[in-house]
């Protein structure tokens, strides 16, 4: 599924620390589908003010070819108001709000820009349907590190568990987002030295229904785009299915056969969605 704001697919959303000007500048040339300039977890308290100025300068300078969001500091922190004011006045594409736990907070902070609510606490998971229902919320982002800590889960080897302790919460976020036509984005993968583990987690996230993945390193962008995108072969198969479907509909049939399988309206809708994602992905620069 593509971005409900109409800016294209969101297969990868890259976090960039706001206190790293060189990383911010480098992000302009990367092929992430969106960039999140981070003022929260990635920035130490003593660097918050300078990070905010760095992000302000980067936004006002323009020249971004993808949506640029700002992850502001959370409610109740000393920096929340200054962060939000800066992001709104500097032209951020949207706000990423950490640790959202109730719909009222999301509603109050829907300030005319898309709001991406981070679900990273048990209460946030339980209230995810109400949060996703808020009109200003564009999507839900999983914060698995904080969520795992809050749930007191035990570390698991990814190839054995596939995040078994978090599966209920991950699926709950996907269900809440999809029920309200919003995008669910999977959590970051911490070990940038483990490309196989990252690829495996992307595959799992796609299978669970996530639209894309948040990433923390440039090397994770291309694998995420591939995992949550559509291949040329898949696009061709979708075209072939639609040809058969449309020919059958022209003859008045509501069910057709393609490749030995029955094809109904839902399969045609899925094929159209795949083609939309494929076409949107073709507009992105080559890796």
What does this protein look like?
- The protein is of the alpha/beta class and 287 residues long.
- Helices cover 45% and strands 15% of the residues.
- It has 2 domains: 12-227, Phosphoenolpyruvate-binding domains (TIM Barrel); 232-282, no CATH class.
- It is built from 13 helices and 10 strands.
- The strands form 2 sheets. An 8-stranded parallel beta barrel has the order 1-2-3-4-5-6-7-8, surrounded by 6 helices.
- The two termini are 21 Å apart.
- Its cofactor is Mg(2+).
- Keywords: Lyase, Magnesium, Metal-binding.
- GO terms for molecular function: lyase activity.
- Pfam families: HpcH_HpaI (PF03328).
Distance between the termini: 21 Å
CATH architecture grouping of the largest domain: Alpha-Beta Barrel
Look at the structure and give the mean pLDDT. 91
Strand order of the largest sheet: 1-2-3-4-5-6-7-8
Radius of gyration: 20 Å
Number of helices: 13
The arrangement of helices and strands along the chain is EHEHEHEHEHHEHHHEHEHHEEH
Number of strands: 10
Look at the structure and give the CATH class of the largest domain: Alpha Beta
Strand percentage, roughly? 15-25%
CATH superfamily of the largest domain: Phosphoenolpyruvate-binding domains
**What gross morphology would you assign?**
globular
- Which structural class fits the helix and strand makeup? alpha/beta
Helix fraction bin: 40-55%
Write the CATH fold name of the largest domain: TIM Barrel
- pLDDT < 50 runs, ≥5 residues: none
Overall number of structural domains? 2
Largest sheet: 8 strands, parallel, barrel
């Amino acid at each position: 599924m593509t971005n409900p704001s109409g800016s294209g697919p969101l297969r990868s959303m890259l976090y960039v620390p706001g206190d790293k000007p060189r990383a911010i500048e480098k992000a302009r040339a990367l092929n992430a589908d969106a960039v999140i300039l981070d003022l929260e977890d990635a920035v130490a308290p003593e660097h918050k003010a300078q990070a905010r100025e760095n992000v302000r300068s980067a936004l006002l300078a323009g020249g971004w070819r993808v949506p640029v969001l700002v992850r502001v500091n959370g409610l109740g922190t000393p920096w929340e108001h200054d962060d939000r004011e800066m992001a709104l006045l500097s032209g951020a594409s949207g706000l990423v709000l950490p640790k959202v736990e109730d719909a009222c907070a999301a509603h109050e902070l829907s300030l005319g820009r898309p709001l991406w609510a981070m679900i990273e606490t048990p209460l946030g998971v339980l209230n995810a349907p109400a949060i996703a229902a808020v009109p200003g919320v564009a999507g839900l982002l999983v914060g698995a590190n904080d969520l795992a800590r809050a749930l007191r889960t035990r570390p698991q080897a990814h190839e054995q568990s596939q995040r078994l302790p978090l599966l209920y919460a991950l699926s709950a976020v996907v269900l809440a987002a999809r029920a309200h036509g919003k995008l669910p984005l999977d959590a970051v993968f911490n070990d940038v030295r483990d490309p196989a583990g990252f690829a495996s987690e992307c595959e799992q996230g796609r299978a669970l229904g996530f639209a894309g993945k948040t990433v923390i390193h440039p090397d994770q962008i291309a694998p995420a785009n591939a995992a949550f995108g559509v291949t040329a072969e898949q696009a061709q198969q979708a075209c072939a299915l639609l040809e058969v479907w449309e020919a059958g509909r022209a003859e008045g049939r509501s069910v057709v056969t393609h490749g030995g399988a029955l094809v109904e309206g839902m399969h045609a809708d899925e094929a159209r969605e795949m083609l939309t994602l494929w076409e949107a992905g073709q507009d992105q620069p080559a890796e």
